[in-house]
Amino acid sequence: MIAILNLLLKYTWKSTLGIKLKYKLKKFNYQFKKVSWSVMIYKTTDNFQDKNWKRSIAFNWFSLKNKSFYKEVSGFADPFLIDNNDKLFLFYEAIVNSKGEIWSAEIVNNKLKSIQKVISESFHLSYPNVFEYQEHCYMIPESSEDKTVRLYKALVFPSKWEVCKILYKDSRLVDTNFLKLENVYYWFTFDLDLNLTRLFYSYSIFSEWIEHKQSPLISNRNAGNFIFEGDQIFRPVQISKKHYGEGVKLMKIVELNEQKFLEEDYIVPFLSSESGYNLDGTHHISVVKSKKETIIAVDGKNNNFYQIINK
pLDDT (tens digit, 9 = 90+) per residue, 45-86? Predict the structure, then answer.
């Protein structure tokens, strides 16, 4: 088997605390070729915009050590970071038997601990937008296959969740974020049927949505939650002019109230498939300040790489 692999694949070895073997597949119909998404986590003490990031974790959908655990998994994507009671957690989409589920893990000393499935439905879930509100943890995952926007509440964080409200229904809305400004909640979500972003507002997290006068917006879908730097607010948005997962750009919120909305391009692109922070595609970023560091999670698409990690 090794002899066959050596004939088919170009390989490199790298030895750290363990052994890391990376195969770059040539254009063969090879049975071990994996094409899907994985998650990378970085750290920096600089401004996250400078991208002086140091990679701390590369989170793939398979490993030698946990082969049976990942047996039915074919990808990880849409990472969301949350600092809860001075502990750092990662929530993400796991593609299990071709259907998205929500999984979580705790990040401890540059390693993922307590990896577990936390929400699974009969329909596809992704984009686990997790946040704290009035001392409780909530999540708004993408559930467009059910034609709903669902608000989950943590009964036991991070492992046990229940639906506490259907925020919107009868539309295929994806990748929903909200922003609170002066006691008004502004909801940004992407309508798959219109292929446009829609903007709503409400007067509590649980109250009915009112569509903004400027909605729908000519904008691509969200690429992660809002990022705050001082008094500046940035909205990561997907770039998909050439292909899905082409990259992420940062939009700057200039004005937002019940009557007006204005945003402008800030960094285009901020992430791209040519930047080195991913492989053959990327469409998501999450940024959290933890202690003296900033933690960044992004996802990346693997088209022609097969990576085995043994640590």
Answer: 999 999 999 999 887 665 544 566 667 888 899 999 999 999
Which value, to the nearest 10 degrees, does the dihedral of the CA atoms of residues 21, 298, 89, 191 take? -130
Is the pTM higher than 0.90? The answer reads no
DSSP strand pairing (210-211 vs 196-202):
antiparallel
Residue 169 has a CB neighbour count (10 Å cut-off) of 11
The neighbour count for residue 41, using CB atoms within 10 Å, is 22
Name the strands in the sheet holding 232-239, side by side, starting at the edge strand that comes first in the sequence: 227-229, 232-239, 247-256, 261-272
- CA 214, CA 131: separation in Å to the nearest integer? 27
| Strands in 27-170 per DSSP E | 36-44, 54-59, 73-84, 87-96, 99-108, 111-119, 126-133, 136-142, 148-156, 160-169
Closest to 237 (Cα-Cα) out of 256, 255, 217 = 217
Residue type at position 48: F
**Rounded to whole angstroms, how far apart are CA atoms 243 and 70?**
28
In which order are the strands placed within the sheet that holds 111-119?
A: 73-84, 87-96, 99-108, 111-119
Q: pLDDT digit string (tens) for 128-173?
A: 999 999 999 999 999 999 999 999 999 999 999 999 999 999 999 9
Separation of alpha carbons 291 and 20, rounded Å: 30
Confidence band of 212 (pLDDT split at 50, 70, 90) = very high
